[in-house]
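Let's practice the habit of predicting before peeking. Look at the sequence and jot down your guess about where helices and strands might fall. Then scroll down.
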Amino acid sequence: MATAANPPAAPQSVIASQSGVPLPPTPQKIQSKIDLAITLTLHLHFPALTLAVQNSWGGPSPMSAQKRDWFAGAISDLFATTSESTLDVEYVEEFLLQVMSDEFEVEVDDGSVETTAARLIGLRKECLRGNFRKVDEMWQEYRRRREGKEGANVGGLYVQGEEVDQDTDGESVDGEDQEDDGDVAMGDTVVETEKIRKERIEPEVDEEGFTKVVGRKKR
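Done guessing? Here is the structure:
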């Protein structure tokens, strides 16, 4: 499995033989595209997570960014180990909510997590069919944002790795930690800070003065 901190490149959607006849993608290529889709989704289309990383809700820098890298790997593992009959949007949404709560102490209730889960499921299905068009488009979107051609605010859009080389395989995303004030604009999506409620678990003390162990509420 490709690591989230060094996502694979997205140069071509098919492999051509020397005779010019397209060959089906290998299982390794399909997996690398799924991993790339996961990583790009977390950076481009999960604004609640971007806000959590920017505000260091997962721990001081670079801990929050490292948790996002781990998050991508955890989703890839979830896809690989969960049966097809179980793996649906609701299942992935619950997983995303639980990680956001456990690792970033954030309760997201604006509906964006369901949208992110649906995107992940859809991209995985496309990759399994050998259709990498949407993943390649996301990769180009990421490059445009980094180059500032769309004037988008991409604070927090980073993964540790080497500089991107557009003409070679094994491309990776360069690391750059940027902070931003106020709302976080990601394409057409604007996440208002107040929509994401950051809740910390406080200890409870009973009548005899003993501290109760309080677990996180699983949605």
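How did you do? Residues 150-204, 210-219 have pLDDT under 50 and may be disordered.
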